[in-house]
Amino acid sequence: MELKPFENKIWLASPTMHGDEIRYVQEAYETNWMSTVGANINVIEQMAAEKVGCKYAVALSCGTAALHLAMKLAGVKPGDKVFCSDVTFAATVNPIVYEKAIPVFIDTERDTWNMDPVALEKAFQLHPEVKVVVIVHLYGTPAKMDELKAVCDRYGAVIVEDAAESFGATYKGIQTGKFGAYNCISFNGNKIITGSSGGMLLTDDLDAANKARKWSTQSRENAPWYQHEETGYNYRMSNVIAGVVRGQIPYLEAHIAQKRAIYERYQEGFKDLPVTMNPYDAVNSVPNFWLSCLLIHEDAMCPQVLGENKALYREEKGKSCPTQILETLASYNAEGRPIWKPMHMQPIYRMHDFVTTEGDGRGRSNAYIPGSGEDVGLDIFNRGLCLPSDNKMTPEEQSQIIEIVKNCFA
Length: 410
Ligand SMILES: *Cc1c(COP(=O)(O)O)cnc(C)c1O
Hints:
The chain has 410 residues and is of the alpha/beta class.
């Protein structure tokens, strides 16, 4: 196959519109419901609640806002420690910090790349007073919810699910976003479906849903004037954005099917390479396959150094590394992405506790002693990458991506 740069860029994950979105946006315009009230909002709250199986959904400006209100609903207070997935987007952690609480990062397991239940148990032994655990379903792959929930129940802690990346994914037949007390999904532009922006808080607790609604609209009390007893936020979703989401929700399952086909084509295409795909529990879970990722075998890694702001590698025959693959993809006009850099490796969190399954469980990122316990997140960050996973990519284009990656190992 002759490889030429793609004429049209192959994106990691770009919005895929279907035509219905503009109809609902138009409707909002024509009926002049252009603000944070309207039929689109009401309809999508009901659709999302039904899809996930939660009693209530509150439409918000973004998933981060939903996580922030979740922190408040869970009663997180300044100085509290909150357990949190380590390999994730910063948006998972920021809301903990907004409330002046202290995130403690829990290492990752290798079966689904999510929070390790064994490390979580260890974290509770170190900090039994912790009351809130934020669990991510990375790249659309459900975490080990039974094991994680059992640990949380034992210590009386509340789960907040960050299902921003996993809308439509199931664990033992139950939708992600249904397991925690207060959960978040996102309609950000590169998620499985999008409103261009937007998010939702999901809960079975009517009182919590009402509070979130009130807080998200500047916490107005029921009075003839602007009366306030609590801090408020401007977090409500616009009815225009809700129109886009309303047009997208019916295509969620179609998008998942496309993403799954992409994952499976990669899996087949790479079967002779020294790599594996991002893993999932095929018996107990059905991911939404939002992003397809690769993990390079240890003995097929060429030398690679990841500094604070740049990456270096040295080519070696028969070997490659994420930096080489990402740079090569970019040279062909295709977009890949590094794995989320673990939170415990981020300069901003360098003094925070990071609990692994081994060692004394107090591996701080700047004082992490190699060998004091396996750092799974760091390993996945070093050897992994996200592949172009756009659901408008054709099988022919994907075949070319596969060839480009194979050539990196030549
Ligand atoms: C996208 C994302 C969020 C935040 O969602 P926004 O709608 O962009 O605020 C939170 N957590 C994770 C894991 C995400 O990928």
